[in-house]
Amino acid sequence: MNAEQGAWIVRAMSEPTFYDHPVxxxxxxxxxxxxxxxxxxxxxxxxxxxxxxxxxxxxLAKRRHYCQEELRLNRLYSTDIYLALTQIGGSxxxxxxxxxxxxxxxxxxxxxxxxxxxDRMLAAGQxxxxxxxAFAKKIASLHRQAASAGAGTAYGGSNAVIDPxxxxxxxxxxxxxxxxxxxxxxxxEQWTRAACEALQPVxxxxxxxxxxxxxxxxxxxxxxxxxDNQPLLFDCIEFNENxxxxxxxxxIAFLAMDLDDREQTELDWIFLNRYLQETGDYQGVSLxxxxxxxxxxxxxxxxCLRLAQGDLDATQRRRxxxxxxxxxxxxxQYTLTRATTLIITxxxxxxxxxxxxxxxxxxIGGIHLRSDLExxxxxxxxxxxxxxxxxxxxxxxxxxFARTYDRLxxxxxxxxxxxxxxxxxxxxxxxQQRNLFRQLAAELxxxxxxxxxxxxxxxxxxxxxxxAQNATADASEAGIEVLEYQLEHAEPLTASEKQRVIxxxxxxxxxxxxxxxxxxxxxxxx
Length: 526
Fold this sequence. Notes:
Layout: H1 3-13, E1 26-30, E2 34-39, E3 42-47, H2 60-74, E4 82-91, E5 94-97, E6 102-110, H3 118-123, H4 129-145, H5 158-176, H6 182-198, H7 200-208, E7 212-214, E8 224-227, E9 230-233, H8 241-244, E10 245-247, H9 248-261, H10 265-279, H11 288-307, H12 314-334, E11 337-338, E12 342-346, H13 353-364, E13 367-370, H14 371-378, H15 398-417, E14 422-425, H16 431-444, E15 448-452, H17 457-470, H18 480-489, H19 495-498, E16 501-503, H20 510-520, E17 524-525
Parallel strand pairs: 12-14, 12-15, 13-14, 15-16
Antiparallel strand pairs: 1-2, 2-3, 3-6, 4-5, 4-6, 7-10, 8-9, 11-17
Helix pairs in contact: 4-10, 5-6, 5-11, 9-10, 9-11, 10-13, 11-12, 13-20, 14-15, 15-16
């Protein structure tokens, strides 16, 4: 597409007098595929007349169709934002809204403050864990409700996964000739092909298990807003069904990559852990780095396509070239093998295990498994639902405990085999429970650490009583009677176990423990 093809629409829609509602100033935002005009209380999105292969807006009929699709699909995520299809007609010299004949179409949206967008909030220092946790819960809920691809569809199959992945390299390749980036790109493509081949059994099983769903497809910070104190998603993929009917892990990997790219890895892992705790989809962790790499290469490709649209000034071009290289570097980081570790907790109810484990997991880039959540999940209960179980009975009986620890062991194995550290958050008051994980660490040849929370009995009682009085919704049901039971039945750590202990005192910080773990084991190796 050359600049002249869109000149008339940009010229017309940049004028406040063009609109049929009050407008004093128009702001233009441009991407590689669209123009967005911010005019008064509304925003108008116009699709550029181009064809990238994976996207075809080359005719007016196609642009109209995809405008309608954008409205239909995005209303699933933000019902109050996407308003109508707006026809622009008349002549290129004198276009008017609702004129005849039709010359172009726009998606009309209700405008919200740009500083609500998460990328803007991050830049302003206003994006915090509570917003990412809210988005994790929202996206998990949307994924649960989304339609699942049937066995007879191509979605989620080997070709549907690998074709867009390899298309990135095909489309980037012409842009790197003579730049010195060719070996870098070739290395990434080689890794991608090998990873896709190795992951074929997982990819096939994901479809069988129903994890290929109609997703948003473009979940990153600039398509997310914190509006009216609620999470808002917008601008989903409408132009390519294969980019939308994807593995749910592919969907969340875009946001995870975007946070990493902005050096917000702690927020990345806060989001990922909350999403996984909401869904229980720990099997998907094995695909996380593959899809993070893919998403980084999507961004690299988009940057190349924008560079090719010759309307950038020198400053914008330099910034785009820097962005391109940064995405290649980030993609390469995801291909490196990390040293990892298995961490279990040891302590009675009220000792602070879950809070500390959550903080530590986000700092070391690891997965936090909670026994309270997985026990409820095994019995078909919501995380905060009461089980009405007696102490030592019901979902807390001996057989239920055994099932819970077996599940935690299985999930920890999945995470470790995926190359990530894992923290298993449970009381671990029985030697047999701890032995399960000692054996797992030996089997997978990873170091085992025990976070020991030796809080005094009086402090434990006080904390458990306060938690009961606050009545804050939580997966734990432990009260004073449970604590009494644990005190009576706890088996102390053995001498050999104490050699693996990191003691967590009330004034211990997750940052200090993370530093210790990084020094001892959590390096990155080729």
